Amino acid sequence: MLKKKIQEQLNEQINAEIFSGYLYYAMEAYFESEDLNGFASWMHVQAQEELLHAQKFFDYINERGGKVELDAIEKPKAEWDSPLQAFEDAYEHETKVTERINNLYDLALEEKDHATASFLKWFIDEQVEEEATADEIVNKLKRIGDSGHGIFMLDSELGNRTLDTAEYTEENE
Ligand code: FEO
């Protein structure tokens, strides 16, 4: 059985993951409006991943005999001045998510909830990857600067991203 304090924080994390998805869908819409279809497609995959993260928390609460409680999702920002600004926001957002996951992990240890601590390890590793990926794209965009050719090349590269569902299947959990 989950302790109330832990259950509350896990439910808040469902909200935070769905908000992340919402934010990346907003970025997808922004890139679509700029005719940057590869950037938009990358954000679409990112948004789908966030919903899978939310699902993982949802399933875990149920598996532990807890109660999922869904709250309202905050409205995300809708406009950015440039692809660089959008990816800088994405990177900053991911650092905040990392902080949330780390706090949740600290709480699980404090409460001696070893199962939750173990469950959260997947997210601790995932956040290293999430931050590194966003940071890499920020750095590429900084190097590209105002080069239309550079943006076009990066747009094609990012358009190749596909959703890898293997890491979300039972045997990989
Ligand atoms: Fe679910 Fe991007 O962290």
Helix/strand layout:
Layout: H1 4-33, H2 37-63, H3 83-110, H4 114-144, H5 148-158
Helix pairs in contact: 1-2, 1-3, 2-5, 3-4
The number of distinct β-strands equals 0
Q: Globular, elongated, flat, extended or rod-shaped: what is the shape?
A: elongated
Name of the CATH class: Mainly Alpha
| Uncertain residue segments | none
The largest sheet, given as strand count, sense and whether it forms a barrel, is: none
CATH superfamily: Ferritin, core subunit, four-helix bundle
Described by its quaternary structure, the protein is single chain
* SSE class: mainly alpha
Strand content: under 5%
CATH architecture: Up-down Bundle
Q: What is the averaged pLDDT score? A: 96
Distance between the termini: 20 Å
Helix content: over 70%
The total domain count is: 1
Attached small molecules: MU-OXO-diiron
Q: Compute the number of helices.
A: 5
Q: Rg, please?
A: 17 Å
Fill in the CATH topology. Ferritin
Helix/strand order, N-terminal first: HHHHH
